[in-house]
Amino acid sequence: MRDLNYELKKLCLRNSDGSYATQYARERILTMIANQLHEMGFRDLQAKSLKPKHVQALVERWKAEALSPGTIKNRMTELRWWAEKITKLLLFLTKAALNKTGFGKAGRTGCPAFISASVRARKKILLSPQALT
């Protein structure tokens, strides 16, 4: 078993989010993704070494295979789960990364709404008079 496959399997076992069917499907999809990355020439990867170039290569491959947008979105969901578990979720939240993959909203500027809202909330708390006392 390759290192990446083994690490992703362990990651799935440690983080049992969702139903048993979801966990099984996630592990199966992540194993497939690890195998595809290996086939595309990305050798000696570890779970923590996920980068935008890997995501870009996967999406380009999936588009070349003429997969439906729904299938690609489902696979991207598992990639986001993987990135969240290794604390690299910002890899998916940049405007450039979303537009590169073709799954970002066209013409969108700035940060995603939930990030902007959380930043505004933090600023509001930090600048409020109650926080200073």
Report on the structure:
The structure is a single chain. This protein has 133 residues and is mainly alpha-helical. It has one domain. The chain has eight helices and no strands. It has helices spanning 3-14, 20-39, 52-64, 69-85, 90-93, 95-101, 113-127, 129-132. It is globular, with a radius of gyration of 18 Å. The N and C termini lie far apart (57 Å). The relative contact order is 0.10. Residues 106-115 have low confidence and may be disordered.
Reported for the largest beta sheet, the result is: none
Strand content: under 5%
Mean pLDDT: 78
Order of helices and strands: HHHHHHHH
Output the structural class.
Answer: mainly alpha
The figure for the number of domains is: 1
List keywords for this structure.
mainly alpha; globular; about 0% strand; about 70% helix; about 130 residues
Describe how the helices and strands are arranged.
Layout: H1 3-14, H2 20-39, H3 52-64, H4 69-85, H5 90-93, H6 95-101, H7 113-127, H8 129-132
Helix pairs in contact: 1-2, 2-4
Brief account:
With 133 residues, this protein is an all-alpha fold.
